[in-house]
Task: inverse folding
């Protein structure tokens, strides 16, 4: 496929930038946590300056206002140049952005969005030990005392919370009535007294997510997004970002990262192995279909068309393709991938296929598991009846 | 876009979803009346001059009702004549756009050269040859229009499991090709094939996904009314998730199809890959659909089996999944 002239120009521009500035050796240079944070911040800063960090933001921000076609070019080129994904600023540039952009007050937007570009990072404090798939069951309490909410409770699985400056926090302000109705959405400074963070070891050895303990944490009422008790609706904006908006970048990055599988095929001399070529071809088509459906989703969204379930379809298509991608890489890599090697934080890019394979579960579980998305599609899109809930106390 | 919605609406009115596989001859008349044979024919040749998207939208609707009318081979045959310079070209175009039928064959031909310029052998995969005035076939010397009533030409039906379509062999026995009906020479045959094959793939893919959607709808509706253990079986999560998976896979394959339909530069391999994914998804949906219908899914009265039969035939048209997956893999290896 060849691009239209304006895209062609952008592609050469991005390529020229990457030829000069793409980080090399970042895998080796981000194997400790401090190094990881340093390399991520550095690369984010340079992408902001070059105008490629937030192509999906409005045009009023430097580097924003890009068309979908332009965004794709950028993501594809970043992946092809094997640049690190911006894991540290992912929640900031997507979930925090979407939430603030769609639901926050003008003051909140004016205060926080520019700071993201300066490097302020966010984490998402939704899940709790007793509230995962059943997110509305959160128990973390917030009591209003004058101008502040006093918050007590515990959050879990919060990605990059240990490095975050701010937190998108869901709390309970009422426990009578339907459980969705008592939820309030707060913006929390992670340095507030009473906040403590304990990283959790993941199966591939990283400490990528963390627990957050909240002990009489005081959050100003001015940091509330939306009305008290109406936080569930705001949370939907965050989740919609997680389930839909992010996926174009991720899909096109996976498209670009197919070159890693191709490299393995060559490295192991499988260029004429028809079975492997077939499996690779099937994966390529699956990834192309994911890109196509992510495109369609965002295209529709821009035109104001979004049905319940659309984002779930995109998310499940992506998460399945990611598992298939990692699994083929793992298979082709052979025994070498079973040796424990120093890896970097990341998803499909750690430098070890076994780690990528383990990481690929992130998307079939995080952001609402695959099964929960299936429920949404079946019940809200195909209009199939819900199961009786007689056992709920 | 308005044109497209109009086409889809017209198709849904003419071929309502509640009547599967309406009679062939009547459907064919309807198709001709609505001008669908002329969809891809340029306006200067008396056609509607519409793009691939319009054509795919119609094939999608034809798939949805398991149409019996052989619109795909008819359109391909017409485009082959269109690309030619035979003396009676405009005459043929007018006849074909008006409702005479000259399909392109959809399976390989095994035609042997005979003595003194005659040909013998079989051209496979001709849909509805019984109503064809001629068949567009790839012969050793290039593509040709072969009148079905010419000496040395006969058609033999090859009964198939797919109850929504009819398949024939065109049998040549000492047939002498008419030089005035040679659409290409030997060298031009590959170019014509490469020009028509993407069209064929996209048409079949659209047929598959229209039908897959209909099979899913039918299955979900059935699951909502069929009761076991005091509740509709649609309430069981184990089954609901299977329905959701069908929806997810159809949606992704559809997105890829429209993407390639709208991309005039999509390569033959990319179109073959879209067809492969669509046909695989269609086959998977119909397998699930029969299982979820239980015993009734195995009866002749219930229509769900007809979807499965069409899916399995579609998988075989224009090259197997293995072939296209391999080509896709090979090409992706070259560029990455
Ligand atoms: C890598 C990673 C990063 C994450 N990052 C964050 C973050 O930054 N912030 C944050 O707030 N959260 C985060 N999460 C949490 C994530 O949202 C939850 O893990 C997820 O919603 C599932 O909840 P759970 O882990 O409690 O599993 P459970 O809800 O206990 O689910 C266990 C199993 O039961 C299934 N299940 C549960 N209910 C149903 C049902 N009704 N029907 C069918 N199956 C069901 C699930 O699909 C799953 O297979 C992250 C998770 C992961 C894995």
Result:
């Amino acid at each position: 496929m060849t691009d239209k002239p304006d895209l062609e120009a952008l592609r050469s521009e991005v390529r020229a930038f990457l030829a000069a500035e793409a980080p090399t050796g970042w895998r080796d240079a981000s194997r400790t946590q401090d190094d990881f944070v340093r390399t991520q911040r550095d690369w984010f800063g340079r992408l902001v300056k070059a105008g490629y960090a937030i192509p999906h933001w409005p045009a009023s921000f430097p580097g924003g206002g890009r068309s979908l076609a332009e965004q794709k070019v950028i993501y594809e080129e970043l992946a092809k140049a094997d640049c690190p994904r911006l894991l540290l600023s992912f929640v900031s540039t997507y979930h925090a952005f979407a939430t603030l952009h769609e639901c926050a007050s003008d003051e909140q937007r004016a205060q926080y969005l520019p700071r993201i570009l300066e490097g302020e990072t966010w984490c998402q404090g939704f899940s709790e030990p007793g509230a995962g798939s059943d997110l509305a069951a959160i128990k973390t309490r917030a009591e209003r005392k004058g101008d502040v909410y006093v918050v007590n409770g515990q959050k879990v699985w919060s990605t990059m919370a240990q490095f975050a400056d701010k937190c998108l926090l869901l709390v309970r302000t009422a426990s009578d009535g339907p459980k969705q109705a008592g939820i309030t959405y707060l913006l929390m400074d992670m340095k507030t007294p009473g906040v403590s963070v304990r990283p959790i070891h993941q199966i591939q050895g990283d400490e990528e997510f963390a627990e957050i303990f909240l002990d009489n944490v005081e959050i100003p009422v001015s940091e509330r997004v939306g009305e008290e008790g109406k936080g569930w609706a705001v949370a939907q904006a965050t989740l919609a970002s997680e389930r839909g908006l992010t996926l174009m970048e991720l899909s096109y990055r996976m498209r670009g990262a197919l070159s890693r599988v191709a490299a393995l095929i060559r490295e192991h001399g499988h260029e004429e192995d028809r079975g492997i070529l077939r499996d690779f071809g099937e994966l390529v088509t699956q990834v192309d279909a994911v890109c196509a459906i992510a495109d369609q989703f965002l295209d529709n969204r821009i035109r104001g068309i979004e049905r319940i379930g659309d984002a779930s379809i995109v998310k499940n298509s992506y998460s399945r393709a990611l598992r298939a991608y990692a699994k083929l890489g793992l298979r082709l890599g052979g025994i070498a991938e079973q040796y424990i090697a120093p890896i970097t934080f990341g998803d499909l890019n750690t430098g070890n296929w076994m780690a990528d394979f383990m990481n690929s579960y992130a998307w079939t579980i995080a952001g609402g598991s695959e099964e929960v998305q299936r429920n949404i599609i079946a019940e809200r899109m195909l209009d199939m009846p819900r199961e009786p809930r007689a056992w709920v106390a | 876009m308005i044109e497209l919605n109009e086409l889809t609406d017209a198709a849904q009115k003419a071929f309502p979803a509640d009547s599967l596989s309406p009679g062939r001859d009547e459907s064919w008349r309807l198709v001709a009346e609505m001008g669908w044979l002329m969809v891809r024919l340029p306006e200067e040749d008396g056609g509607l001059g519409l793009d691939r998207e319009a054509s795919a939208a119609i094939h999608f609707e034809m798939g949805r009702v398991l149409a019996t009318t052989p619109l795909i081979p008819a359109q391909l045959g017409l485009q082959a004549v269109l690309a030619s310079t035979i003396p009676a070209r405009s005459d043929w175009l007018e006849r074909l756009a008006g409702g005479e039928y000259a399909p392109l064959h959809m399976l390989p031909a095994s035609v042997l050269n005979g003595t003194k310029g005659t040909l013998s052998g079989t051209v496979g995969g001709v849909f509805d040859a019984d109503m064809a005035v001629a068949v567009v076939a790839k012969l050793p010397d290039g593509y040709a229009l072969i009148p079905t009533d010419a000496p040395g030409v006969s058609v033999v039906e090859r009964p198939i499991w797919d109850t929504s379509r009819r398949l024939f062999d065109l049998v040549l026995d000492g047939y002498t090709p008419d030089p005035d009906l040679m659409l290409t020479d030997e060298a031009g045959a590959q170019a014509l094939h490469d020009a028509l094959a993407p069209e064929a793939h996209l048409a079949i893919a659209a047929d598959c996904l229209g039908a897959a959607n209909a099979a899913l709808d039918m299955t979900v509706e059935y699951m909502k009314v069929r009761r076991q253990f005091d509740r509709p079986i649609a309430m069981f999560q184990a089954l609901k998730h299977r329905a959701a998976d069908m929806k997810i896979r159809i949606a992704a394959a559809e997105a890829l199809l429209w993407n390639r339909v709208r991309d005039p530069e999509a390569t033959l391999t990319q179109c073959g890959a879209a067809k492969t994914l669509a046909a695989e998804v269609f086959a998977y949906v119909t397998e699930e659909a029969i299982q979820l219908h239980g015993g009734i899914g195995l009866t002749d009265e219930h229509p769900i089996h007809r979807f499965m039969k069409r899916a399995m035939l579609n998988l075989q048209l224009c090259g197997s999944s293995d072939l296209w997956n391999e080509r896709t893999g090979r090409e992706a290896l070259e560029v990455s």
